[in-house]
Amino acid sequence: MTEKYDLGIVGGGPAGYTAALHAAAKGQKVILFEKEFIGGVCLNKGCIPTKSILKSSQLFSDFNNCESFGVFAEGVSFDWAKITERKNAVVERLRKGLLLAFKNAKIELVNAEAEILDAKTIKSEGNIYPCDKVLCCVGASPKVIKGLEFDHKFLISSDDILNLESLPKSLMIVGSGAIGIEWARIMSNLGVEVTLVELAKNLLPLADIEVSKRVERIFKTRGIKFYTETSVEKIDGHKITLTNGEIVEPEKVLVAVGRVPNVKEKIEGVIYLGDASGEIQLAHFGIKQAIEEIDGIKFEKNLTPSVVYGSPEIAWAGLKEQDLEPESYKKSVVLVSALGKAQCDGETEGFIKLLSQGDKIVGVHIVCEEASALMQQVLIAIQNGITPDKLKEICFAHPTYSEGIFESLFRL
Ligand SMILES: Cc1cc2nc3c(=O)[nH]c(=O)nc-3n(C[C@H](O)[C@H](O)[C@H](O)COP(=O)(O)OP(=O)(O)OC[C@H]3O[C@@H](n4cnc5c(N)ncnc54)[C@H](O)[C@@H]3O)c2cc1C
């Protein structure tokens, strides 16, 4: 039995490390157990590595499409090994930063697997750690579905794809959530032939319907093949028969059909945060849950924003059009092509859409460069009940994509 801790945490992803740092800042004695790498899935296998690779792929694509800007790049090529090397360096740098923050905050970090015995006890490597409070922040793992079980060679997960030694010539992606869409964009940027298969009626099924349709249009113009209302019927070697009768023979298949919390059974009194909570599986959701738990700062879960990265970005928050009763709302849509900044950048694909009820903005849905930052501006207004009329009083800079938000206020 060791000395007693104020807070014991299992899992060092965004939920766990945020809880640890915020509790330590309040003077609590904190211990955190992490069996792999600090930073969790987000830093080591999720948000950060994919966005690093996405950036490399985007640069390659931009150089291949720069002639219309009067810029000519010859002999542009890429080296997958160097792309992954850079990705590893980015991850390593951020990991070091976290470790330093832990050291400075005097958080005890145990690099080992741990088991939560009850609401006040953690066991790891034969030792018992009594704690006043225990947080379970063990995250989630790729979902396995029947017939598409990972063999980690042909049928791969979002973990496996990060460790590919070379790029396949063709890739089938099953599932068009954020992970599927981002990898479709990355691989397509790098010249891999992509086929996306989605069971739902539209791509990105959790998005506003017009966003989904726009993504489909963008994929069509970029030659990214996709099938909706379709799943895999049969696999025979590399030959895949889809339920719509199509036969595809990809070199690899990325199965990205969701993630399952790493929690077998919930223990009474233990607090579950992040992906382990079984709620919204996003890093910032886990971070906000942790801050709510430690600092008591409440947040509006219904206003957790979503972002899908790539060009153009896709971002939304609040209610979607399909959530609202007809006639109960107003909508305004500004096409990105109407914006001076978009024309200058040659990034004219997309729209900025606001939904309102009475004098309240209730939803924002954006397909546009910088959508992640634009959405956040509107989210601040939504959460604080800042009316469209009040927002009209703000001076938006020109030329910017934010002008699209300003413009859309006058169309509500
Ligand atoms: C490819 C991909 C891209 C993503 N992109 C984004 C994005 O752009 N934005 C976004 O918001 N979200 C993104 N996500 C989701 C995001 O990564 C997760 O929501 C987030 O990591 C959840 O944080 P967490 O703290 O709950 O758990 P995790 O980050 O999963 O961390 C849990 C940690 O617990 C450790 N652990 C588990 N069991 C034990 C045990 N028994 N003992 C000790 N340690 C244990 C694990 O090793 C792990 O490090 C992405 C996910 C993937 C897979």
What are its keywords?
alpha/beta, 11 helices, FAD/NAD(P)-binding domain, 5-stranded parallel beta sheet, 412 residues, 3 domains, 31% helix, single chain
Q: Which distinct ligands sit in these coordinates?
A: flavin-adenine dinucleotide
Please count the beta strands (DSSP E, at least 2 residues each): 22
Share in β-strands? 15-25%
Instruction: Estimate percent helicity.
Output: 25-40%
Mean pLDDT: 97
Major pleated sheet: 7 strands, mixed
Please work out how many helical segments DSSP would assign. Answer: 11
What count of structural domains? 3
Assign the CATH class of the largest domain.
Answer: Alpha Beta
Rg over alpha carbons: 23 Å
Distance between the termini: 63 Å
Q: Could you please describe the fold and organization of this structure?
A:
With about 400 residues, the protein is of the alpha/beta class. It has three domains: about 5-140 and about 260-295, 3-Layer(bba) Sandwich (FAD/NAD(P)-binding domain), CATH 3.50.50; about 145-255, 3-Layer(bba) Sandwich (FAD/NAD(P)-binding domain); about 310-410, FAD/NAD-linked reductase, C-terminal dimerisation domain (Enolase-like, domain 1), CATH 3.30.390.30. It is about 30% helix and about 25% strand. It has eleven helices and 22 strands. It has helices at about 15-25, 40-45, 45-65, 80-105, 180-190, 210-220, 285-295, 340-345, 370-385, 390, 405-410; strands at about 5-10, 30-35, 110, 115-120, 120-125, 125-135, 140, 155, 170-175, 195, 225, 230-235, 240, 245-250, 250-255, 260, 270, 305-310, 315-320, 330-335, 350-355, 360-370. Strands 1, 2, 3, 4, 5, 6 and 17 form a seven-stranded mixed β-sheet that branches. β10 (about 195), α6 (about 210-220) and β11 form a beta-alpha-beta unit. The protein is globular and about 65 Å long. About 40% of the residues are buried. The model has no long low-confidence stretch (mean pLDDT about 95). Flavin-adenine dinucleotide (FAD) binds near residues 14, 50 and 284.
